[in-house]
Predict the structure.
Amino acid sequence: MRGPPLRRLLHVGSAVVLLIPLWASWDLLRLALGILAAIAVALDLARIGLPNVGRRIVEMVPVFRDMEARRLSGATWLSLGYALSAWFPPIAPAAGILVSASADPAASMVGGLSADSVGKTVIGSLAALGTSVVVLTLLGLPWQAVVVGAVIGTALERWPGPCDDNLVVAPGVACVVWLLT
């Protein structure tokens, strides 16, 4: 498996970090995500700055987009977003991480089905919204947190800002859930 399908699988699989507080504690999750983010940044800087290292990383993990050749990868932004979201009180980080891990791949997969999909699509955003509603509902959150969290998560997934949307979805949703629960 290579390219977009592998990238989506890794994105969804990243939610496995939520097993840490089930086995240990939220504090250990925060520590683990901080370490993971630092390692991701270091590897990305090596990938970008050291051509031989970069080629090896790209060969080992064939998921990088062309636009990531000279900038941080989506995975690095995702790890930073997870690390930020982990500082909210429990259930909020779980909501942010689960929405981020599932809504983005859903948007990518459904949006990619569109014949003219070059970037983010309306149908992809609707898939992200639906996925977010399902995830937040399954967490047993109040309807206000489900609706606002899903809308904010979807809006942030469309993020046109200077950094990758993976940085803002998890903490954005975590913040909404924290405020509304």
About this structure: Residues 3-180 form one domain. Residues 26-49 form the longest helix (24 residues). The chain has one domain: 3-180.
